Amino acid sequence: MLNQAAEASLSKFMTKLLRHTPAEYGLPLDPEDGSCLLKDLLSIVTADPKWTGITQADIRQVVGNSGKQRFAIQEERIRARYGHSHAKLTYEPGTPPPVLYHGTHQAALPAILKEGLQPTGRQYVHLSAGLHFAGLAGSRRGKLVLLTVDTVKAAQMGVTCYYAGNEVWLAEPLPPACIALREEQ
Ligand code: HQG
To answer: Among the atoms of ligand 1, which is closest to the Cα of residue 126?
Structure first.
């Protein structure tokens, strides 16, 4: 059983492998859904001297305890559900609720209102159906600012949204006309 600090540290390593730099570690990810065999992930993780004693149960512990449900395990395969930068994965397009939220920080606001929401380092813009997730995302870099996204207008403007599960929605770049400051911050 991993303690909390080890769990957080292993989770970070897993996000690095499954979202950002799999090729650097020789981890083959499915180009469609970004998944790999759990045993392949485990052998890469345990090759790191810090994690030699790690087992599949430890990986399952990280997956199960992620409040944000960052990872999904299906049968013998594991993937990160969202957040990828390494490749543009395929998600089913969906019809989101009329309003979605994006949490950002004060310093980014002028640029967002001018040029819209961009994926920046990731492949998609990250939105959520609930305020909690947006709040967590936006609080990481400074003073939280909550934005609303009018998804009906976005669809009219040709923006596709994809559901990544557990209230997370992914989108192509969103023009400023679909974005507003949430009145009650
Ligand atoms: C901002 C974490 C300037 C955007 C989180 C954000 C989330 C702009 C930053 C998930 C911009 C990108 C994703 C523009 C957007 N000009 N700044 N035009 N458009 N931005 O981390 O959405 O814990 O790549 O507002 O909690 O913050 O890793 O995206 O501040 O769920 O599982 O550019 O990652 O989840 O930052 O976060 P990010 P995000 P995990």
So the answer is: 22
Query: Whole-model pTM?
Result: 0.96
Q: How far is ligand 1, taken at its centre, from the CA of residue 43, in Å? A: 30
| Residue 85 is assigned to a structural domain of this protein | no
Strand pairing class (77-80; 125-128) = unpaired
Q: Which atom of ligand 1 is nearest to the CA of 136?
A: 26
86 falls within a domain: no
Which atom of ligand 1 is the closest one to the Cα of 168? 31
Residues 116 and 169: their CA atoms lie apart, in Å, by 17
Give the pLDDT of residue 26. Answer: 97
Structural domains in the chain (count): 2
In angstroms, what is the span from residue 104 Cα to ligand 1's centroid? Answer: 7
- Provide, for the chain, the percentages of residues in helix, strand and coil under a 3-state DSSP scheme, each rounded to the nearest 5: 35, 25, 40
pLDDT band at 184; cut points 50, 70, 90: confident
> Are residues 110 and 71 part of one domain?
no
What CATH number corresponds to the domain at position 43?
A: 1.10.10.970
CA of 126 to the centre of ligand 1 (A): 7
Nearest to 65 by CA among 17, 21, 10: 10
Region 154-172: what's the mean pLDDT? 97
State the average pLDDT over residues 89-117: 97
Check whether 47 has a pLDDT greater than 80.
yes
Mean pLDDT of 12-25: 98
State in Å: Cα 36 to ligand 1 middle: 25
